[in-house]
Amino acid sequence: MSEIVIIDSGQLALSLRLPELGMPEILSFGSEPVEPDPLFEIERSSRVNGMDIAVPSNVLLPAGGMGFFGWPAIAGHRGGRDFVAQFGGWTVLRDGNQTVLKGVDSVARLGIAITLTAHDSGLISMATELSNLGDADYQLDRCMAATFLAPAGDVQVMSFTGIWGREFQTRRELLGNGTWIQENRRGRTSHDRFPMLFIESETQIFGVTLGFSGNHQMVIDRIDDGRRLVHLGELFEPGEMILAPGESYESPTAYAGADSEDFHAFVREELTTWPGGTMSPRPVTLNTWEGNYFDHQMDSLKAQATAAAELGIERFVLDDGWFGKRDNDTTSLGDWDIDARKYPEGLKPLVDHVTGLGMQFGIWFEPEMVNPVSELYKAHPDWALTIEGRPILESRTQLVLDLTRPEVSDYLFGKIDAVLSNHAVSYIKWDMNRDLTHAAGRDGKAKTSAQTRAVYALMDRIRAAHPDVEIESCASGGGRIDYGALKRTHRVWTSDCTDALERLEIQRGASVFVPPEILGSHISASPNHQTGRRHTLAFRALVAIAYHLGVELNPLELTDAERDELKVYIETYKRLRDLFHAPGASFRMEPLDGRYVWGAASGEKIVVIVAQGPQMVGEQPAPLRLPDEVTQFGGQWRIKTVLPAEPQFIRISEGQKALLSGAVTFALSSAGLAGLPLPMLTPESALLLELEPIKGGKTHG
């Protein structure tokens, strides 16, 4: 009987059969593993007018040329030869929850190793290594990291698109008979093609994501029996991946999970590594960008820090403008020396002032970029990624430094290390503000893949030298949010757009794969700097409060009333953040008639945030039916706290007033079956409901 290999995470199970020749056959992919059975030895009949011997199509990483006529997950050649791959001689190596399948193609002289891991969080991950065992170069055109199997029949794919300032917009489409494909060629994760999908059918739902920050491919290919193979992997530029004899290509890691909770658990438990080993409560952050831009004045910055501390803010981040002669965004990137005009005594007086107030100090870098108007570019124009004879294409008046060159990486490490070593810095905001175009080295060959890995190496080097420093991944906002970046960072800047109305959809989409404590969300000024909209402080605060809360304004410009109100929301965040960020506590609901609902729940406290985006179409809002993950706690509850104190309701009944005042006690099960009859909110307003159980009531959890 054939060898059966089971990868079982407890939530997902991948069952494989290893053939003598050919790729591992996927017997099942779902909630339950298979048991060895004679059924799996029955070969399929060949197709009408097809090959005389049936070639399985439901396999991991199918290669073309030997009877598989679908989309090949592996492709390459050796000078035009060895363009067909057929692996066999499979061996299985197990080490704890990790399984490595190794095969060889003795004709094409290639080796392959597929690493499959069952994670405690419920995820299954897969990565591929392909080796050149021949004596001549092998050009690898494609090598996917992973393949997962989706059912036959109607299947819907949920993907994410967007633009700068409007990321993580969800899109759903029904798959047809052809091949669905998403390719990203921007050289960074991008704002419009995130490497994250959810696959939904009548019988199964699962998500997949690729842990990589560069170019990628995600392909859903319909095979001959109606089922679909879901492939994830890196996208190579022409001729980018040439393996010399003895060299290997190691793919990024791809992940599959049954639901958002499992993806969140993986990020919390395994992917993110925190200084000291555990996440500290996420500090309220003041970022100086929108409050100051490039206008850095020491006295003002110190006063802002003092005002921030009085508000209860715990981390002060100095954004762009502190180095070189950086008075605007056209100059000085690459010149990472402190601007003596703005800081005649260096940064230390500001850092000491901030830390003396009991706050952490953070600082902004954009290490990968250089302005043509800079001392660095004047000295080393050859350090930029360009192609000889082609126009130098600037974006935001920036070029990209070739981090694959050791002298470039060493220079950047030295500059960043000097700032971190000489100042009490706890946090780096690592920005990256342009896509990659004609990214080539001095030899004219593509370097997009190598550049991505060089960025990772620089991040790893900085983290090793400064293990107590946290890093935020920012790339024009949400342009580099993926599990490759999150492996090395502790926070992402979800979007450069801080408009609370836009953030409703941005944060809802990002929350599918990223837990709330990782997503930076800031209370900014009104009118908003990106959209010009005016929103109440309550709306701005409540849209941000469940995530990693920050402030993006000059606190000196607040009125006394605004300052007092902001203090209330910061104090509320601090009181509730342990719940908001607790494993398995957060929930979110699908928007209904412009009403967004999310929050967190435990057996001791439930927090529900309700935000009305656009004007409702209905004349009355439907009662708010709390989801099962909230009502599971059971017992009798009441509303203890409502924020703001006077929500913006269009109309409210006496009974609704009693409910919101805490005078009505209700069974939590009723809140799931019938729902909470809340009043209608005005457009672009929100409220927070804090529920508490009635002591002595029956609860379970």
TrEMBL record:
Its EC number is 3.2.1.22. Signal peptide: none annotated. It comes from the Bacteria. InterPro entries: Aldolase_TIM, Alpga-gal_N_sf, Alpha-glycosidase_related, GH, Glyco_hydro_27/36_CS, Glyco_hydro_36, Glyco_hydro_36_N. Keywords: Glycosidase, Hydrolase. CDD domains: GH36. It catalyses: Hydrolysis of terminal, non-reducing alpha-D-galactose residues in alpha-D-galactosides, including galactose oligosaccharides, galactomannans and galactolipids. Residues 61-243 form the Glycosyl hydrolase family 36 N-terminal domain. PANTHER family: ALPHA-GALACTOSIDASE C-RELATED, GLYCOSIDASE FAMILY 31. This is alpha-galactosidase.
